[in-house]
């Protein structure tokens, strides 16, 4: 039972099993949920939410790897929620178009994995490595979004 709950957390329930591009689905869920589940909170609470997602997401990802018998299975998408919300962390409420641009920037950095994002997957073991590359992709995307908002 415990393992099933952790796998469901790692995959966001059925979302991770949607056809084609599960990471994009996970990021989309995070972007849609952000105005309701992330933005209403003060900055310090947002940081605590992200820390909670990182820790429990890593534990869930580690268990999902064991249960699914694969390193970083595509259906594991809790890391996308973390990275997407890190993208939004530095900003107050944003317009719908800015949320979409942040979504696109995060997906670009998460897919292309420029230095040191790809290498970061090996810095930590198991689910911790799954989570850390999305942290960095989120930081890159936040910087890109900040530059975009300056235009």
Fold and architecture overview:
With 151 residues, the protein is mainly alpha-helical. It has one domain. 72% of the residues lie in helices and 0% in strands. It is built from seven helices and no strands. Helix 2 crosses helix 4, helix 4 crosses helix 5 and helix 4 runs parallel beside helix 7. It is globular, with a radius of gyration of 14 Å. The relative contact order is 0.16.
Structural class based on helices, strands and sheet pairing: mainly alpha
The total strand number stands at 0
Strand content: under 5%
Radius of gyration: 14 Å
Entry summary:
This protein has helices spanning 2-10, 22-37, 43-68, 78-88, 96-112, 117-120, 126-150. It is an all-alpha fold.
What descriptors fit this protein?
151 residues; mainly alpha; globular
How are the elements arranged and paired?
Blueprint: H1 2-10, H2 22-37, H3 43-68, H4 78-88, H5 96-112, H6 117-120, H7 126-150
């Amino acid at each position: 039972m415990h393992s099933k709950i952790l796998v469901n957390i790692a995959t966001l329930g059925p979302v991770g099993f949607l056809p084609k591009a599960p990471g994009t689905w996970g990021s989309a869920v995070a972007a849609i949920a952000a105005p309701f589940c992330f933005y209403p909170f003060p900055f310090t609470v947002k940081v605590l939410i992200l820390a909670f997602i990182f820790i429990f997401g890593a534990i869930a990802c580690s268990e999902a790897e064991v249960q699914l018998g694969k390193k970083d299975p595509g259906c594991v998408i809790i890391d996308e929620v973390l990275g997407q919300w890190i993208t939004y962390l530095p900003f107050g409420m944003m317009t719908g178009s800015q949320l979409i641009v942040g979504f696109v920037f995060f997906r670009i950095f998460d897919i292309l994995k420029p230095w040191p994002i790809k290498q970061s997957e090996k810095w930590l073991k198991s689910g911790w490595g799954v989570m850390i590359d999305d942290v960095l992709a989120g930081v890159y995307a936040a910087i890109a979004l900040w530059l975009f908002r300056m235009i």
